[in-house]
Amino acid sequence: MDTQAKEDFARFVVTLRSDGVREALATLVKRTDYRFIGIWRFEDGKANAAVHYDREQPDVLTAQEVPDTATYCCFVREAQAPFMTPNAMIDERLAKHPAREQVLSYCGVPLMDSAGTLLGTLCHYDLVPRDPEQVDLELMLSVASHLTLGGHVPPYPKQPNKPIG
To answer: Is 59 exposed, middle or buried, given 0-12, 13-18 or 19+ CB atoms closer than 10 A?
Structure first.
């Protein structure tokens, strides 16, 4: 990890301790021009952000629950390895992917516990094309490891109870 990434990791850890996961992730997304960063979890064929940060609307705390195959996180989950695309509209791997026309750029890494179990993904994403090379993959993997080994990955978000009747 280069000197800047080491400084950014240290800033992430300090912010995590003082302000929590969401604010710590906000420090990471601000090193890029991506709009969103999140920790995504999978449950019962669905995917949702356990932690969500939108730099344009920082007061929005949640993302929309979607089928797990409608996220690029499914590629991270299947390969248990990073996945990135600068522009889904010209990425042949995503020719038939349901999110292709909405989420145009993505850079995600797996969140794996010490036993190698995938807990979810840590990802940057945006509605416009972005250069994933601006994301320091080594830093992202270090952050992912710190989050999982430190017990900072929240569970799948609970959906509000719907009224009966």
So the answer is: exposed
Residue 142 CA to residue 146 CA, distance in Å, equals 6
Q: Is 13 exposed, middle or buried (0-12, 13-18, 19+ CB in 10 A)?
A: middle
Q: How does pLDDT run across 76-96, given as a tens digit for each residue?
A: 999 999 999 999 999 999 999
In whole angstroms, give the CA distance from residue 54 to residue 15.
17
pTM for this prediction: 0.93
Tell me which CATH code domain 3-149 carries: 3.30.450.40
Check if the beta carbon of residue 46 is closer than 8 Å to that of residue 66.
yes
